[in-house]
Specification:
Protein name: DNA methyltransferase
Distance between the termini: 41 Å
Largest sheet: none
Number of helices: 4
Transmembrane segments: 29-51, 63-89
Shape: elongated
Radius of gyration: 14 Å
Keywords: Membrane, Transmembrane, Transmembrane helix
Structural class: mainly alpha
Organism: Bradyrhizobium cajani
Helix content: over 70%
Length: 95
């Protein structure tokens, strides 16, 4: 449960960062947060499935610093990537 919360929070922050970094990607505050939540949650879970050591630590309830850092990086990257993709598509369609 903790890893999902870490993914969601870091994904939302990654989405906000990506949206505010360039007007091309900006979806507004609510759009950035929502796309960041979705992207962080999805990519964070994919990373957990691909890295068995992170999954084992999460299941044992013994999250290490490395596990938390990998979840934060994956969540924020997922949030930023999805926000950038949606923002680019939205702004290209509007033009």
């Amino acid at each position: 449960m903790e890893q999902i919360l870490i993914n969601l929070v870091s994904g939302a922050l990654g989405g906000i960062g990506a949206g505010k970094s360039s007007p091309t990607f900006d979806l507004g505050m609510a759009g950035n947060v929502i796309s960041g939540l979705v992207g962080g949650g999805v990519l964070g879970q994919v990373v957990t499935l691909l890295l068995p050591s992170v999954m084992a630590a999460a299941q044992s309830g013994n999250l290490s610093v490395g596990g938390v850092v990998s979840q934060v990086v994956a969540g924020s990257a997922g949030g930023a990537i999805l926000t950038a993709i949606i923002g680019a598509i939205k702004n290209k369609a509007a033009a």
